[in-house]
Amino acid sequence: MTHYLALIFTFLTYQVFGQDIIETKKGNLTIHPITHATMVMEWDGKAIYVDPTGGATAFEGMPAPSLILITDIHGDHFNQETLQALDLRNTELIVPSAVAALMDGIKAKKITTLTNGEKTGWDNITIEGIPMYNLPETADSRHPKGRGNGYVLTVSNKKVYISGDTEDIQEMRQLKNIDVAFVCMNLPYTMDINQAADAVLEFKPKIVYPYHYRGGDGFSNVEEFKEMVESKDKNIEVRLGNWYPNQ
For the chain, what is the HEC assignment? Predict the structure, then answer.
């Protein structure tokens, strides 16, 4: 009976969150798409929230966050109401300095700032800040270089790239040995599926998740993105997650 109930719970969790499993040498890395740029990753008894939005109700059934990563200042990445609604007493936040400057009133165990090119360690995970920005680089850019962070996490023997809001930049194309990549694609804010596919085909992650793909004119065609990538490189697997469950 206990095993049967566990199977039901796993099935229901998958239905709600669309979870996926990445095997590492030190246990499974479980990925839960929540919405748009928001996700939860579980590994080694810890829960990593990325760009938490949607209030506490968006994370019902999820463990409390051990670590929160925030990529940028915009509301679909940094949501103060959601942070205030979550229990952060045992949570460390790793954020760009531009986000740290907006965090008055957020009470957490620790807040660490990370800039592009810097690395830090957190509980056996290495975290590196990666540039994310719009092209061409202009003073009025939605995402100027240096303000926000993409991230590369080394989790056991796996390297996980989270693009944040970026266009087809050289720093992304030059990434090496990425096992799992979360790549944005939504005009006019980041890049289109053609740019995203071309970049992915250059830096060759083993698994790619299109995410952050709701743009000014609706949703990007992630099925077409998948076809574009997999038809040209059979060694890259594109996985389509349930990033917009209520839409």
Answer: CHHHHHHHHHHHHHHHHCCEEEEECCEEEEEEEEECCEEEEEECCEEEEECCCCCHHHHCCCCCCCEEECCCCCCCCCCHHHHHHCCCCCCEEEECHHHHCCCCCCCCCEEEECCCCCEEEECCEEEEEECCCCCCCCCCCCCCCCCCCEEEEEECCEEEEECCCCCCCHHHHCCCCCCEEEEECCCCCCCCHHHHHHHHHHHCCCEEEEECCEECCEECCHHHHHHHHHHHCCCCEECCCCCCCCC
pLDDT digit string, tens, across residues 28-43 = 999 999 999 999 999 9
Cβ-contact 215, 142 below 8 angstroms: no
Indicate whether 216 pLDDT > 50.
Answer: yes
Q: What is the pLDDT of residues 136-152, one digit of tens each?
A: 888 788 999 999 999 99
Instruction: Please name the residue that has the structure tokens 């996490």.
Output: 153
Main-chain phi, psi angles of 5, to 5 degrees? -65, -35
Place of tokens 């229901």: 12
pTM of the model: 0.92
